[in-house]
């Protein structure tokens, strides 16, 4: 099984805009910025906003962060942060966002992964995420429950690009695999286009269907 991470197995409350706001709260405590101010500055510019465009030139942590750092710098500048402070805030945002303690596992995640492991089903993670995703996965306690961890930042391809799925499949027949995730385009449509069976979870279109629900369906089929 290939499974998404962010929004499927775990989530970071408030995502990027909240992470940047928390950095401002700590480093510039008298700022007047709201999360909505930052969110509006982050609507475009991440590699996954252009998932159709490969980015092998960014498939190295520092190259990826140089690119995304420009976006974060623009967000900080847009809310009036002094230009001299922006580089330090971007560095702080990187460290803060990648801190595993900022991610929260969904209640059913560990149990669902344990059941898959007990059934002999190998699980790998494929997520549109930061280069440090393997460290985050380990830090939230999932290292012993999943095999390989693939981040789009390291692959140079974002889901639903077929090359992202090809890398995660590692030569396995896609017809034998499931793709499970919370995004109708990246996970559901992308997985099906790659030849896999696919399930959408934690999304209004499936009325809150969970990873545990999908595991139940797979194991009792």
Index terms:
221 residues; alpha/beta; Rossmann fold; 2 domains; five-stranded parallel β-sheet; 10 helices
Explain the layout of strands and helices.
Elements: E1 2-3, E2 10-11, H1 15-27, H2 35-41, H3 61-78, H4 86-97, E3 104-105, H5 109-118, E4 124-127, H6 133-139, E5 149-151, H7 152-155, H8 162-169, E6 178-181, H9 184-193, E7 197-200, H10 211-220
Parallel strand pairs: 1-4, 1-6, 4-5, 6-7
Antiparallel strand pairs: 2-3
By DSSP (H or I, 4+ residues per run), the number of helices equals 10
Q: What is the arithmetic mean of pLDDT?
A: 97
Helical content class: 40-55%
The major beta sheet can be summarized as: 5 strands, parallel
Specify the CATH class of the largest domain.
Answer: Alpha Beta
Unreliable stretches, pLDDT < 50, 5 or more residues?
none
* Terminus-to-terminus distance: 15 Å
Shape: globular
Strand order, biggest sheet?
Answer: 5-4-1-6-7
Rg for CA atoms? 18 Å
Superfamily (CATH H level) name of the largest domain: HAD superfamily/HAD-like
* CATH domain fold name of the largest domain: Rossmann fold
DSSP, total strands: 7
- Sheet-strand content, in percent, reads 5-15%
Second CATH tier, the architecture of the largest domain: 3-Layer(aba) Sandwich
Helix-strand pattern, N to C?
EEHHHHEHEHEHHEHEH
Integer count of domains: 2
Structural class given helices, strands, pairing?
alpha/beta
| Oligomer class | single chain
